[in-house]
Structure formats: C-alpha cells, structure tokens
Amino acid sequence: MASNIKVENNPAFSRIPPWVKAKLRPIAIEKIQQVYDWVETECIPAERIYKAQLQADRWKTPAIIHELRKKAKAQGLFNLFLPNHFEESPGLTNLEYSCCAEIMGRVYWAAQTMNCHAPETGNIELLAKYCTPEQKKRWLYPLMNGDMSSAYSMTEPDVASSDATNIGIKMKIIDKEVIIDGRKLYGNCQYNDEMQLFILMGCSDPNNPNSWNRHTMLVVPTGTPGLRQVRNLTIMGYDWAPEGHGEYIYEKVRVPIENIILGPGRAFEIAQGRLGPGRIHHCMRLIGQAERAFELALVRCVEPRKKPRGKLIGEFDSNIERIADMRMTIDGMRLIVLNAADTMDLQGNKAGRYAIAQSKIMVPNALLKVIDEAMQMYGEQGLTQHTPLPELWTYARFVRVADGPDSAHRHQVGRDQMKTAAGFRKRAEEYTRRYQELCKKWGLEPEEFWGIV
C-alpha cells in the first residue's frame, strides 16, 4: 500500500539521496516522518527540561524520558533499529533505519526515548540473533519492552583490548556454574538502578591453541555477589550521567551455566555479529549531530546582534566558504553511512565489514571538523553550555575510540586490501607484456613500465 506522505519538499526527507528514496517502502516513509515529527516537537524543545531534571539527581533517568518513552512506544516508535530479518523486528531495513537514526542524532538522548540508543541496540540485536527462546524470555523481551537497560562489557584496563584476543578476565566453567575473576572498563554504571545486566566477554579456555576459541560470552545480572563498581569514568571531563561508564571488579562472581550465550568458546563469533551493527548505529546518529551543528552555524550567521565590523558573520567570505565546506562534508558523511547500511542489507554484516569500518573511521573524524568550525563561528560562546556544541564534539571524539580506535579499523581495511595486491601485480605484468609486444610492432625501445621491466 502506498504511503500518503509526500516525500518531495518534505523536510523529513530533504537530505535523503534520490537512490535511497527510491528504496524506501511505505512503512519506512511513515516511520521516518514520525521520527522527524517526534524529535522536532518532543525532544529538541525539551533539551533544557532534561538537563534541569538531571541536575536534581545525576544517576536517575529524568522523568521526562520515562514520559516520552511511554508515548513513543504507544506510537510504534520502539526498537526501530532491529533489522527486518529478525522475527522481533518492527520491520525496517538497515538502510531505512539509518534515515530514522540520523534524525534521532539531532538530540543526544532522543534515541533513548525510542529504545534505539547504545548499548541497547547492539545488545538487543545480539540477544535476538544468538539466544535460546528461554534466554530471550529472560533478557531480550524485557530490554525490548524498556523494562530495564543493559551494558556491554568487553574492554579491560590491563591489556590492549583493541586486540580482543588479549582479553583476560577469567571464566572458570565448572559443573553448573561459571566463576568470574578480573577487571573491566566502560560498562554502563550501576549507579542507575535501571541497568540490570552485563553482557560480558571473558577468557574461559586460555590454553586453547586457537586464540579465537578461548573466550566465552555470558550474561551477568548487576546484583550478583562479588561484582563491584569501583567508580564512574569521566569521558573528556563529562560524567555522562545518568548512564555513565563504570570501572568494575569481579571477585569470584558466580552465574549459572545457562547464562552462557551460544556456547563456550564462541565469544568472537558473537562479538563480530554485534560490533558491526553497533558501529554503524553510532555513525548514523552522528550524521544528525552534524546537521544540528550546521544549523547552529547558520543561525549564528544571521544573528543581528553579532556584527563584527558592521557586517553579519555570514557576510564574510571566509564564513561563506566555511559553510560550503561543512555542507559538503556532511553530505559526504551521509553517503558513506548509507552505503554501509545498504551493503549490510544486501550482503550481510560480515560482507559489509569494509563499509562499516570506513564509516567508523571517516564519519567521527569528519564530524569533529564540522563541529569545530561551528564553534569557531560562535567564538568563545561556542565552548560553553549556551549551545550543545561542546557535548556534540565530546561525544564525536569518544566515538572515535568506542568499539576500537581508528588504527585498529585502518589495519583491518589495509590488511584486506593487501590481499588484493598479488592480483594487481599480475595485471601489471600483463600490461607490461602487451606493451613490449607493441614496442616490437612499432620499432620502439621498451622502457620501465609501472616499475616492471
């Protein structure tokens, strides 16, 4: 059934490229419009309300979030991120959801009102993909319903976690239990009592000759004896309440063997299935942040009270060029993300790993430049709480490291590309052979060609 929403000249669709619009089904057109209306009318006007309520209790989810989550759920705006090949999915593809996620990114917490925020998106997709029906009943459905929140616990302070084979928290599997000892970083804070479970990756078989089969993933409820939060970790000076980033110690923490996901030694299989979607969801939302920064820059350009040398800021040639660069940078970021989402839909997450890595490397870096330019246009005011710019910049800088630093992703991309080098060498040799034949035909002396004689 065709949607009665007109896409052309509609602000909800104004930045979506034609090739993507052509792929949007009626259900996606309806959801994109709903999300746009939701963020514009419910979230952006409430940003200062959220901050005021958060100041009253840093580690309680503000009341306005609970109110908006009820309304969003009633409007069918929950869990839009879960791709349509899952039976629990609301029905969107990755490409269609990316158009929604960009709009959500305009406000840092807007995705949370729709249960489409990190780490929930990655954790829910993980549980939907790998859990048994009984495990889904215990953990997946309460998370999808918004009854609780969760954390993903992989990074460790004592090893180079960018090489996940180094992860060393000990998991001893005995009889009907798993005993856990070690330290972890970055799982969401226990200070917020809505956070009810960790999805934990640890080393259960350290002597396995295959380093990729040494690790296990399981669920640890937050109230389990022996699990202790040491502190919240600030990120670039922000505490990121009410979710936060905890530092944890596990001391003989015991969980039932039924909490193991998929099976012992299969953590890397699960992690690869989770990290791809988690990385791309971050990048989808970052496009929305970029658009918000760009709009703030435009607002500053025509601010009548700000007239250095008697001219509007937007009348200076340097700022006109700055606006042009920002616009083109954002449009390029969007194409990279949409390509990754479409590749995941057509070929799967594993086949799309290059496009996902490309997004993870390029989008946060480009966004930092866009936000920094907007800050420059606001001057010293751009560094204060007068605008969302400092928090947008800090989040973008954090995402450069979340799910692995740039160098780890570049290494993966470069390593995959190096595998193609032999084929190109062979092709170059064939070019040279044909060139030498042509030299004989035309009576010329062969020269070095592409470094091959």
Automatic annotation (TrEMBL):
Entry coiled-coil feature ranges: none
Acyl-CoA dehydrogenase/oxidase C-terminal domain boundaries: 268-415
Entry keyword set: FAD, Flavoprotein, Oxidoreductase
InterPro entries per the UniProt record, alphabetical: Acyl-CoA_dehydrogenase, Acyl-CoA_Oxase/DH_mid-dom_sf, AcylCo_DH-like_C, AcylCo_DH/oxidase_C, AcylCoA_DH/ox_N, AcylCoA_DH/ox_N_sf, AcylCoA_DH/oxidase_NM_dom_sf
GO cellular component: cytoplasm
Cofactor (UniProt): FAD
Biological process, per Gene Ontology: fatty acid beta-oxidation using acyl-CoA dehydrogenase
Domain Acyl-CoA dehydrogenase/oxidase N-terminal: 35-147
Domain of life (superkingdom): Eukaryota
Similarity comment: Belongs to the acyl-CoA dehydrogenase family.
Official protein name in the record: Acyl-CoA dehydrogenase family member 11
